[in-house]
Amino acid sequence: MNVTVSRMDMLTPVLDRLVDPSDIRALEKRDLTRLADEVRAEIISAAAETGGHFGAGLGVVELTVALHHVFNTPEDRLIWDVSHQAYPHKLLTGRRNALRSIRKKGGLYGFTKRSESAYDPFGTAHSSTSISAGLGMAVGRDLKGERNHVIAVIGDGAITGGMAYEALNHAGAEKSRLIVIVNDNCMSIGPAVGALSTHLTELRETPKRNGSNGPSSFFETLGFRHIGPVDGHDLDKLVSTLSALRDENDCGPVVVHVVTEKGHGHPFSKPDKEKYHAVGPFNPETLEFKTAPATKPTYTKVFAEALIDAAKKDSKIVAITAAMGSGTGLDQFGGEFPERCFDVGIAEQHAVTFAAGLATEGLKPFCAIYSTFLQRAYDQVVHDVALQNLPVRFAIDRAGLVGQDGATHAGSFDLAYLGTVPNLVVMAPSDALELRHMVATAAAYDEGPIAFRYPRGDIHGVDQPADARLLEIGKGRIIEEGDEIALIGLGSRVSACIGAATLLREHGINPTIADARFSKPIDTDLIERLVKTHRVVVLVEEGSIGGFSAQVLTHLAHAHLLDRAMIEPMILPDRFIAHGSPAEQLADAGLDAQSIAARVLERHRTAARKVA
To answer: Identical fold at 299-467 and 477-611?
Structure first.
């Protein structure tokens, strides 16, 4: 099915008469297929206007319709793992009119969110959580003596995560009534990898029929009943299968293996399941994207190129991704060095300890993980890497705020949680060349673990591939000498400090601008000099309390220098920043150039009054 229809000429008579899922339950079976077609067309029309993660949702339209037709939501709990695929769910649960606000400031969140709707019983955005949450709900239901159903929908990519295995192990022993739907589309963001993915393929291609000797189900060995595979685009089969489960009286967990196609029915003639996982706005008639392709290099791209350059010179360099090959740029590395690139699936804990094992054998592992996902492997960073002082290199993408993906994906905490760990060096590049320096520095550093964190999006500065050099550990740099006011930025906020300096010069203030480079260890000589020679020292970082500023303040307290200048930390506020554009988020957080300049002017006036 190819849908290329604008909203103006799209007829949606079934969808138009729905208020909430109770109306879906009242529909005749013959109307369900029409409803699925209308939902798919509406999602494509909305995606044409707003962009977003619509590929996963298009693949589960029929499943979503069937679930809300069969089960009594929200009394029956429906949990979408990750919830990239929840656009049809949102549309059918009273949020149709707001669908075009999705991922915009003040609009619908791109994932399920408890505070947004009673039909979202659990907020998700990271993977592999649905079975654990669903089992908790099922056991809670049993303890209360209630009889509602709990359904967890998890993809074949998300089920590779270790937490999902732990939940399956517990659920198989607990025996509470829980329905787990495995949405098997052979994809996460990229193609699914690993032995379980291979097993699902075997089950899909050679299902057991009438007692024949098909492959044994992994889920059955854990105490689940296994139903399927079921065609996830056949509404009759879905409805009959789910209705039978709903009406059964016996207890116990069950897995329903549903086979779908990611992006099913999307309008593009040559589907690219990974590329169209998320898209920008496009013209639904011509299928041309409304936003011109990016011309500036991104931090991710520069990292990938710098790592390839380093690996050409050093055969010990290997790279690890946790199912984010394209997102981290390691797909480029894998193209150059396929035998030295490892995709471990959605398994960040394993990725880190796997890297530690490689390091013990004298290899130089680069573990490239988004900041928000590295949180999942904190114990492994501490226990398996830092405690043994193993030289694992952490390339931390999406550090800081991430725009429309919102609080669940923001890299807000890595500076704080890594800064507490002994033996670990933490860097942050302010531009393209600095990132190349840090990749080269990490490749050469063998005294222990080292990390460098960089933001999402276009990179600052001109990329100069040939100029990468090694940095002295723990040493920052002065970008511009000034007087009275010192702006010390870390990573992404250095460019904001430069922008703030331009604004401040309009008020007769000529600040010193420094690039800290290192959050741990900090450049104590540079910081002490600036504190001793400036009345106001502003520390700016795109991270939570406990990061770079905390390191600086602790040092100054120990050096008895806190009274030498007015020290002003500018960090992320102690709250989760709502989704919006990157500029809106930075303004909300008070970390854009205008906010820095305003804070400096306020503190400059305060310092002047004290002197007077």
So the answer is: yes
User: Of the residues 96, 177, 262, 340, which is catalytic?
Assistant: 262
Burial zone of 204 (CB within 10 Å; 0-12 exposed, 13-18 middle, 19+ buried): middle
DSSP annotation of 389: T
Pair 364, 444: CB distance under 8 Å:
no
Is the domain 299-467 a CATH 3.40.50.970 member?
yes
The CA distance from 414 to 493, in Å, is 15
The half-sphere exposure of 291 on its side-chain side, counting CA atoms within 13 A, is 10
Do 537 and 506 contact (CB within 8 A), yes or no? no
Tens of pLDDT, residue by residue over 443-499, are 999 999 999 999 998 887 777 777 789 999 999 999 999 999 999 999 999 999 999
pLDDT in tens, 510-536: 999 999 999 999 999 999 999 999 999
Query: Do 174 and 139 contact (CB within 8 A), yes or no?
Result: yes
Annotation says 348 is catalytic? yes
Cα separation of 317 and 333, whole Å? 11
Task: Judge whether 376 counts as a catalytic residue.
Answer: yes
**Helix, strand counts (H, E) of the chain:** 24, 17
The Cα–Cα gap between 233 and 483 comes to 67
Given 42, 348, 434, 584, the catalytic residue = 348
DSSP assignment string, 13-38: HHHHT-SSHHHHHTS-HHHHHHHHHH
Q: What are the sequence ranges of the domains in the chain? A: 13-265, 299-467, 477-611
Q: What CATH number labels 477-611? A: 3.40.50.920
> pLDDT tens, 256-287?
999 998 878 776 655 555 545 566 666 666 55
Candidates 3.40.50.970, 3.40.50.10840, 1.20.1250.20, 3.90.950.10; CATH matching 13-265:
3.40.50.970
**CA-CA-CA-CA dihedral for 457, 461, 462, 463, to nearest 10:** -60
Q: Which amino acid is at 53?
A: H
Cα distances (Å, whole numbers) of residue 123 to 18, 78, 204: 24, 11, 30
Choose, from 40, 90, 340, 376, the residue flagged as catalytic.
376
pTM of the full structure? 0.86
Tell me the average pLDDT across 210-216: 59
Q: Is 393 a catalytic residue?
A: no
- Provide the phi-psi class of 447: left if phi over 0, else alpha when psi is between -120 and 50, else beta: alpha
